[in-house]
Specification:
By secondary structure, the chain is α/β, with parallel strands linked by helices. It contains nine helices and eight strands. An eight-stranded parallel beta sheet has the order 7-6-5-4-3-2-1-8. The longest helix has 18 residues. The model has no long low-confidence stretch (mean pLDDT 95).
Length: 225
């Protein structure tokens, strides 16, 4: 049976290969281990293999893990849907929140970020494939939301996050990412440095188009049970 450490080596090799092919800088891409539904033992295994960034989708599950793993130097990313009644917890217990899709949520995170913590890193989720089943701001509304969030002192707007409609064709996988990156770069907003996209099935396409944070779960931890 492959171990988490071995899986992590394979993923880093894939990331390195893609960076080389598409002329990305050595430190251009950070791996987020998506540990939702996985036990803390799996997180510890990945941690001991060198992984430091972990992504969680469910608030209570994440809080329980954070308590159990409080002795570990982990950077916690929240990558799930955001409910208004959970913003206080997110603001207090996470380093990154990836799925901000409106100004109301951003305002709540800003107001509820504890004064003793650094500004909360946030990404705006963009519904780049215009899917009715997915959250996220429409591309044409992105510039206005960026302007609004940029005024909030307790948030550090880092960039955008996207989960396009699944595609098996490599060219088709690249297209939505290309569109989003081009749009953001045309805004010429110097504070935006993060593209949070790419998962186990479209890792190479995402890196080819400029991803800086890839979110990998299945390839690292195995299928969810």
């Amino acid at each position: 049976m492959p171990t988490i450490a071995n899986n992590l080596k394979k993923i880093h090799a894939q990331i390195h290969h893609a960076k080389k092919i598409y002329h990305r800088a050595e430190n251009a891409v950070q791996l987020i281990a998506v540990s939702k539904t996985k036990p803390t033992t799996a997180i510890v295994s990945a941690y001991h293999a060198g992984q430091r960034h972990f992504g969680e989708n469910y608030v209570q599950e994440a809080l329980n893990k954070q308590v159990e793993l409080s002795a570990f130097d982990i950077t916690w990313h929240f990558i799930g849907a955001i409910q208004s009644n959970k913003t206080k917890v997110l603001a207090a217990h996470f380093d990154w929140v990836h799925c901000v899709e409106n100004f109301k949520i951003a305002e709540r995170l800003n107001a509820q970020r504890p004064d003793f913590l650094a500004a909360l890193n946030v990404c705006i989720q963009v519904n780049i494939s215009d899917e009715t089943s997915k959250s996220g701001v429409k591309l044409e509304e992105l510039a206005n939301l960026i302007t609004q969030i940029s005024t909030l002192p307790n948030l550090k707007l880092r960039g955008v996050m996207a989960i396009p409609a699944p595609q098996t064709d490599f060219v088709a996988q690249r297209e939505p990412y290309q569109k989003l990156v081009e749009y953001v770069k045309n805004l010429k907003n110097g504070q935006l440095d993060t593209f949070s996209f790419g998962m186990s099935d479209d890792l190479e396409a995402a890196i080819a188009e400029g991803s800086t944070l890839v979110r990998i779960g299945t390839a690292l931890f195995g299928q969810r049970i």
